[in-house]
Amino acid sequence: MDDLFSNFDLYLKAFGVTLGLFVVSGVISLLLGALLASLRVGPVKVLARAAATYVTIVRNTPLLMIFIFMAIAGPRLGFTFKSIEDLSVGDWSVSAFFFRSCVALSLYTSAFVCEAFRSGINAVPLGQAEAARAIGLTFSGSMRQVILPQALRAAVPPLTSVQIALLKNTSVAAAFGMAEATFRMKFFTNRNADDRVLIFVAFAVGYVLLVEIVSFAGNRLERRWVVAR
Amino acid sequence: MTVSVLFDAPGPRTRARHRIYTVLSLLLLAALVAAVIWRFNDRGQLAYRLWEPFLTPEYVEALVRGLLKTLQMAALSILFAVVFGVAFGIGKLSDHAWLRWPCWLVVEFFRAVPVLLMMYFVYYSYGVGEGGIGSYWSVVIALTVYNGAVLAEIVRAGINAVPRGQAEAAYAIGMRKSQVMNIVLLPQAVKIMLPSLISQCVVALKDTSLGFAIGAPGLTYVGKQIYTEFQDQVQAAIVVTAMYVVVNLILTAIATWLQKKYVSEKNPLELTRVGNLDGGRNV
What we know:
Chain A is mostly helical and about 230 residues long. Chain A has nine helices and two strands. Helices cover about 75% and strands about 0% of the residues of chain A. In chain A, strand 1 and strand 2 form a beta hairpin. In chain A, helix 2 packs antiparallel against helix 3, helix 2 packs antiparallel against helix 8 and helix 5 packs across helix 7. Chain A starts with a helix and ends with a helix. Chain B folds into two domains: about 45 residues; about 230 residues, MetI-like fold (Orthogonal Bundle). Chains A and B meet through helix 3, helix 4, helix 5, helix 6 and helix 7 of A and helix 1, helix 4, helix 5, helix 8 and helix 9 of B.
């Protein structure tokens, strides 16, 4: 246990990487998922079909396989993401590892985000749209003032679940050389076999804390935004 | 014409516009497919040599054996997880605080801890070396505690979803607490829980792939052996993914069928949150 405490900065840095993966892929997956959902409920049948196919395939694929595509199969097709390391903003640059982990997590999570948004839209009763048109709101008016506000609020609980799942899924990046929390636990366990249980608990508690924070934020948002029906 | 909450029934001008969009998006999708094929061709990934292993009976057999191993691991962990889930799910509903709180704590803990972290812990602490339990059982144990915790939540929600009058009627005719649970509540709850249980099987099956990280046997392991030998990473990844998707689709179809047959139009179970690998699917 002394080893963990004397190297506590490694512990914090590892959870920093986990948080970084979570936030970056969380934002990208929300955007990508919103795009997919709008294609899926949109009037163009071809695009709806394409989005539905993507969602079905990705939802039934293990996240690990998507990581294998990015980290192991990708380079064979010439996708090493090495060029991303040349890009730097000031002192900041992104490692290829981090980048491709975020791509894999975002691709995977966006399928679930799409489903969450869609369930939100499905939760809006048809009568709401009919009433909006009946009082003379235009298409964009009824969309902006009646349907989407309700749909987005109804989508908050499933979206929170998806984001919590994403937070836990960032651990898969450890299997592909990303030095985040799960990777560090393995590192400390191998160095101090006698303290393995305590080390596990220390890292597990870190995850539990992060999960509880996201869950708490989701609950607050849900309660503030709840639609009275 | 299906009625949609989002759009009015389109008029002639809108329909004409939609036709243009359809053509444009078809072109876009075709371009995308063409780009992928061109890339494959450009990097020599369409070469027959690289696809050959997946048409060779010997390797197909190995893959199928890997799939069976994966299914076996998933089935075992679901089996144990059901036991775990029923025990802790009922524990969470206990009238005794000294039983309810520890059960709650265990369930919440294992639901919030990533499966891979659990797997690494079990494997590197108790799995490796002489006398260790090995990677196979490390995967099964990690999946058991995780899925067991999720199932505990499903069991709790399922029992709560049985109409209250059922328990009240059972108490009224003089049944004891354990009788009410065993004879009246649990059998009815099982029916409500079935679709969620099958969905959880899909989650467990997907999670067995994490055994890759500790070298456990299974589909991904066989895939790795094949691509290490033939250097056909792309093709192996495609084939293995396709196998996972097909099996999962079959399981999902069973879940949908059970939902229709036994639960009819009722909503799926409402679970308290703390995500699982399958976030959106309401487990």
